[in-house]
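Tutorial handout. Part one gives the primary structure; part two gives the three-dimensional structure as tokens.
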Amino acid sequence: MKSVILFFFLLFPLSLFSQQRVWIDSDIMIGKFKKDVDDGLALILMLRDSNLQIEGISFVHGVDYADKVTSKLLNWYAPNLNIPTFKGSDDSAGFGKETDAVKAIISALEKGPMAILALGPMTNVGTVLKLRPDLHKNITAISYCAGRKPGILFSPGSGKVKFSDYNFDLDPKSSATLLETEIPVLLSGYDCSDSLFLNREDFIHLKKSKNKGDRWLFRQLKSWENLWSLFLGSKRGFIPFDCSTVGALLYADEFTIETEIPAFIKVDTNDTKYTVSTPTKQFFYVDQDGDGKPVSYCNFTKQKFKKRLLRALNHPEYR
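Part two.
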């Protein structure tokens, strides 16, 4: 039944309805040297959507900086929305502990149905699922930036460097709680995002914006693009992963999504030592021939979504 509900949302994106309640759980690091810009762009995208009611933003992994930079972004891009923010767990040791973030998510769910955008490790959200199984019925869907099909390598740019399934690798135990529930789950990680690139032409207009936030944003995107070019050999720019995680749930017709595909966790040969250094590690797999919880799986971002993202960034061609 739950998978049918998620299929309904994929056919009829949340943005078609009035003021949908959503919660953002994020490890936002934009502005920090050598840290990605994805969560920041995803937040701006959601702030531009008047159909969303963002109930709150919680932080996981690097929560002090996340709180600081999010306050800055909210002051620039949504000064009148009064969106509350909450610090959660800094690492996987916090799984099962009742932090301010966990309390806030629980409180929001007690008020009624809500979707969760899980853009970082699952520590906060997994704790909510563990502590309050009675509230599972109020989670309309969880879109999680994680998961892969067997054999898929996370190797963008030149393909010489392989990424890890970062969010999952940092806390596999909390991710496992997803598979123990009937909550509709949409896995929308690397495979979903690697068809979406942003380059200098997509954000150069921000450089001369009258908005201080836009000018700051330009500097962060420029630095991130330079890192991708230098270290990954990318000639196309960079992938804003978490933007697709958000978009796949909210604007499903702008993505290619498989439904009713089994998800499971399996130990396999480690394909990168980026987050886990052991010869083997756990993988979050989806496979039609596997045995596990049926989930939805995003594997492609259409050009239509990139136009939406550029419109959120006030690109002159898409205003």
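Part three, for discussion. The domain at 2-312 is CATH 3.90.245.10 (Inosine-uridine Nucleoside N-ribohydrolase; Chain A). The chain has one domain: 2-312.
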